[in-house]
Amino acid sequence: MDIKQNYFEFYGLPEAYELDLGQLADRHLELQKQLHPDRFAHLSDQERRMSAQYTAYLNEGYATLRSPLLRAQYLLKLRGIDTHNESSAQIDPMFLMQQMELRERVEEAPQHTDPDGELAALDQEVAQAMAELQAEFRRMIGEPSQEALDAAASAVRKMQFLDKLSREIERLEDELY
Amino acid sequence: MAYSEKVIDHYENPRNVGKMDAGDTSVGTGMVGAPACGDVMRLQIKVGNNGVIEDAKFKTYGCGSAIASSSLVTEWVKGMTLDQAADLKNTQIADELALPPVKIHCSVLAEDAIKAAIEDYRKKQGS
């Protein structure tokens, strides 16, 4: 184990968007056992600190690889693109228009004759759009060209908008119950 | 993080929230978004024959600073010529609202939005 390795290497998994979640969970359990603090109790302070550092890296890696959005962002980051922290980027105006309309529908959902149904329908739409973007990302990140990489980044930026939208839907659903 | 009084004022009493007919040739629409936070902003201007902005409307889904930045811009650009409005800088917005460094990107978004609205209007006019 080495925290200079990226999360995929650390977990001994292929560096790809497609990931076997069961295999990831198994590897996580194995690595957790290897790093268990009890096994380091008899060691020096420095070695115990290192074990804590490894555990933190392990947990961060697990959270990142498990989430479809975080995993996509991470794959881009490994290729030098940080979509999570960039302050501005060109976004397709048509996509923004759709986002605006969806946001308006989410905002008005509590006044809808059937708020639960409307929110469920919105949730479904967002999930569908998210699945399409994930499929697009999976195709593009496997291609070696710069154009494909740009397309992959563009898909992730859109996912970030949808992620915000789905959290907004969740927030409203919580409020309704 | 504490918001400045001006941000809170615009957030609680946003000016000029609304929508204009995007198909109207005297209306320019700017749509921008910040992928990092998922904010979306629509800013629209209605321009008179003399090239002066008669009215402005916005709708922003985002944090208080993003709402305040776009609200402030709609207030400022009314009565401006297109060139004057195109010269607006995000730093003026950030200064007026006393935005902290982590919220500067909200003022950038508002500047991008007014520029996009002006560009859309000019494109429609064919000039």
Automatic annotation (TrEMBL), chain A:
GO CC annotations, alphabetized: iron-sulfur cluster transfer complex
InterPro entries the UniProt entry points to: HscB, HscB_C_sf, HscB_oligo_C, J_dom_sf
Regions annotated as coiled coil: 119-175
The Co-chaperone HscB C-terminal oligomerisation domain, residue ranges: 92-170
GO biological process, one term: protein folding
Keywords: Chaperone, Coiled coil
GO molecular function, one term: ATPase activator activity
Matching Pfam families: HSCB_C (PF07743)
Subunit structure: Interacts with HscA and stimulates its ATPase activity.
NCBIfam families named among the record's database cross-references: hscB
Family indicated by similarity: Belongs to the HscB family.
The protein's role, per its UniProt record: Co-chaperone involved in the maturation of iron-sulfur cluster-containing proteins. Seems to help targeting proteins to be folded toward HscA.
Name of the protein in its database record: Co-chaperone protein HscB homolog
Lineage start: Bacteria, Pseudomonadati, Pseudomonadota, Gammaproteobacteria, Oceanospirillales
Automatic annotation (TrEMBL), chain B:
InterPro entries referenced in this protein's UniProt entry, alphabetically: ISCU (IPR011339), NIF_FeS_clus_asmbl_NifU_N (IPR002871)
Pfam family, one: NifU_N
GO MF assignments: iron ion binding; iron-sulfur cluster binding
GO terms (BP aspect): iron-sulfur cluster assembly
Location of the NIF system FeS cluster assembly NifU N-terminal domain: 2-125
GO (cellular component) term, any one: cytoplasm
Highest taxon listed in the record's lineage: Bacteria
Family: Belongs to the NifU family.
Matches recorded under PANTHER family: IRON-SULFUR CLUSTER ASSEMBLY ENZYME NIFU HOMOLOG
Primary role: A scaffold on which IscS assembles Fe-S clusters. It is likely that Fe-S cluster coordination is flexible as the role of this complex is to build and then hand off Fe-S clusters.
Official protein name in the record: Iron-sulfur cluster assembly scaffold protein IscU
Organism: Marinobacterium nitratireducens
